[in-house]
Amino acid sequence: MLRPLRKVRDHFFRDIINRISDLETGIRVLVNSPSYDHSDGVGFNGQKGRKRIFLDLVGKYEFSSLIETGTYLGDTAGYMAKTTGLPVFSCERNPSLFSLAKLRLKEIPSVSLYNMDSREFLLSLSDKPEISEKECFLYLDAHWGKAVPLKEEISIIGSRWKKFIIMIDDFQVPDDDGYQYGKYGTLRNINISKLHSDYNLCAFFPAFPSREEYPVAQGCVILTKNDHFAGPLQEISSIKRYRLNE
User: Fold this and answer.
1) What is the pTM of this model?
2) At the N or C end, where does the chain have fewer CB atoms within 10 A?
3) Which long-range contacts (CB under 8 A, 24 or more apart) does 38-45 make?
4) What are the backbone dihedrals phi and psi of residue 105, each rounded to the nearest 5 degrees, phi first?
5) What average pLDDT does the segment 207-220 reach?
């Protein structure tokens, strides 16, 4: 009897804490950064190495659109739009964060924001052939809070997109414990071998050590189809392939 009551209590207090956090974030953003300010310190956690990987990918592929799950405050969406000039589609499930991001990015017309669950968002975009049948870059960062839709997101993309590069934030980098990661973003929870067998995906990780990443070292993984579309990734020095027993 105590365990169900404890779960109800924990759920109640977690929601209160989340609401207080949203309020504090809103006040801080409205006071200090009410509009997106394009600079080297914003986007992709401000990580220099992560941005290098992104720009290397943009230089190798002819992306028609950039897609993000988990807008948060809009810094990465704004950075991608300003840096590439390409249309950016981004979703944020939290209505408060969505409103803040919409306010901050209102001067960047190439960014389209959606207050949606990331799975519904990806399904809706996959029905648009002008998006799903062309080369796309997808940045998956909607794994905060109680819902962790990462496996479903990968499944939707792998089964419904033709030409894509996925980058996942907060992911464990093999053989380098200096990279931070979330408990969901591990090779144990996201089985690379199963992704290879189910969707013919292959994986790439940062080629540079975590000590060279600045100002923080959050890990990431790159996923794409294990066919000719992955060829250009072999030529990018900032990433290295994760070898499976294929």
Assistant:
1) 0.90
2) N
3) 38/78, 38/79, 38/82, 42/75, 42/76, 42/78, 42/79, 43/75, 43/76, 43/78, 43/79, 43/80, 43/83, 44/76, 44/79, 44/169, 45/169, 45/216, 45/218
4) -105, 15
5) 96
